[in-house]
Automatic annotation (TrEMBL):
Domain ABC transporter, residue spans: 5-247
Protein name (Swiss-Prot/TrEMBL): ABC-type sugar transport system ATPase subunit
Family annotation (PROSITE patterns): ABC_TRANSPORTER_1, ABC_TRANSPORTER_2
Pfam families linked to this entry: ABC_tran
Protein keywords: ATP-binding, Nucleotide-binding, Sugar transport, Transport
Length: 251
């Protein structure tokens, strides 16, 4: 099987700071890969490059075997890569279906289109279909997002990403600040996204969540990728020792 995303030799410097040093990374269809590392390890720099927010100094990115260049977030979204940052980028006063179509509203067909009339019926049906396909349950799609719990908000943001991110979904700390049940819901949702064949990169400092939901764990340290572990064969102590560098020093 070919990887959906293949990153080779990506580097990024900020002046004298080496944020990423010759990093390789790949992810396959339906895979959930954890990206872990201590503060400053380079995780955010890598996902900002994949989401088009910043450009690498060197290296290549392939999506489905084609070399791509993401000059902006719009480029990466256009090619089916969606990133959910911690701020979620939801509009609190808009309801769930409006948030799912935010910035991608579907216009009505017919003459009302010239006035920019949006097709609310279509968007409501599609939003319901996305949420159902991911087994996300909310009381009503007409509820403003501001009235949802933190976990429900996260679920809406992830569902929106999965609806548009046909190639890859990147989640930055999606379980932060959530209660136990909400964490459970979000982790199940991640598996539901990957079950649709969409690979997911899961960035988190909460290693038990990473061990629970991922297939593979990529460990970064001081801008380098230092380990690639199969989650089924990994344990917490081992991941921690790669993160802190004690594993590298021992080997
Ligand atoms: N805009 C910037 N200007 C200068 N240095 C930067 C910038 N962005 C990141 N860095 C530096 O690059 C290195 C990697 O940072 P990065 O944010 O990618 O790490 P991280 O693994 O995401 O950390 P955290 O878990 O704290 O978010 C750090 O040394 C950081 O200080």
């Amino acid at each position: 099987m070919e990887p959906t995303l293949k990153v080779r030799g990506v580097s990024k410097n900020y002046g004298k700071i080496v944020a990423l040093d010759n990093v390789d990374f790949e992810i396959y269809p339906g895979e959930v890969v954890g990206l872990v590392g201590d503060n400053g390890a380079g995780k955010s720099t890598l996902i900002k490059i994949l989401s088009g927010a910043i450009q690498p100094d060197s290296g290549t990115i392939e999506l489905d075997g084609r070399t791509v260049a993401f000059h902006s977030p719009a480029d990466s979204r256009q090619l089916g890569v969606e990133t959910v940052y911690q701020d979620l980028a939801l509009a609190p006063h808009l309801n769930i279906e409006e948030n799912i179509f935010l910035g991608r509203e579907r216009l009505r067909s017919g003459w009302t289109r010239i006035f920019g009339a949006v097709d609310k019926t279509f968007m409501a049906q599609e939003a319901q279909r996305y949420l159902d396909s991911l087994h996300v349950h909310v009381p009503s799609l007409k509820v403003p997002v501001a009235e949802l719990s933190g976990g429900q908000r996260q679920a809406v943001a992830v569902a929106r990403a999965a609806a548009w991110g046909k190639k890859l979904v990147i989640l930055d700390e999606p379980t932060n600040h959530l209660g136990v049940e909400e964490v459970d819901m979000v982790l199940k949702l991640i598996r539901n996204v990957s079950a649709q064949g969409i690979p997911v990169i899961f960035i988190s400092h909460t290693l038990p969540h990473v061990l629970e939901v991922t297939d593979r764990i990529e460990v970064m340290r001081l801008g380098k990728k230092v380990a690639s572990l199969k989650t089924a064969e990994a344990n917490l102590n081992e991941v921690v020792s790669w993160i802190t560098g004690s594993k590298e020093e021992a080997s």
